[in-house]
Write a structure and sequence with these properties.
By secondary structure, this protein is mostly helical. It is built from six helices and three strands. It has a three-stranded antiparallel sheet with strand order 1-3-2. A hairpin with a 7-residue loop joins strand 2 and strand 3. Helix 3 crosses helix 4.
Length: about 140
């Protein structure tokens, strides 16, 4: 059964999610929430809408709303509506995210190390290229 690529990818994703949630538990975050914070940090403070986040994560609007609400409740992001168009809700990182950034980065690095343990740099790059190709094939 593990020779089936689709099944293998599913099992890897489930185990990765479980490990990531354990690794991020000390900072009271889930792997999905960390992905959101990482995306916002990568935007360098640029105004970001929930719609842009939805497109990046490739999830539904209700899913994004739930993740953002939990992050806001935990104090990692703040939101504000566009003064001219109330359909646009902007997301911003908070001081709490800045304070815990190094700890979150260390947790993220730990997860990446777990995923690539025993691989050479060349193998890691090849894995990324192959997974990107698989993604392009199914999107």
């Amino acid at each position: 059964m593990l020779s089936d690529i689709g099944y293998l990818l599913k099992v890897i994703q489930e185990h990765t999610e479980r490990h990531a949630n354990q690794i991020f538990k000390p900072v009271d975050l889930t792997s999905s929430q960390v992905r959101v914070l990482k995306f916002l940090r990568g935007r360098g403070g640029e105004r970001t809408t929930q719609k842009e986040l939805q497109q990046y994560l490739k999830v539904s609007h209700p899913t994004v709303v739930g993740i953002v609400q939990r992050l806001e409740h935990k104090g990692f992001v703040r939101t504000e509506f566009d003064g001219e168009d109330k359909r646009n809700k902007y997301l911003y990182l908070t001081k709490r995210e800045e304070e815990l950034f190094e700890q979150m980065k260390a947790s993220h690095d730990k997860m990446e190390h777990l995923l690539t343990r025993g691989m050479t740099g060349e193998q890691i790059e090849e894995l990324k290229a192959l997974l990107t190709l698989v993604y392009e094939n199914v999107k």
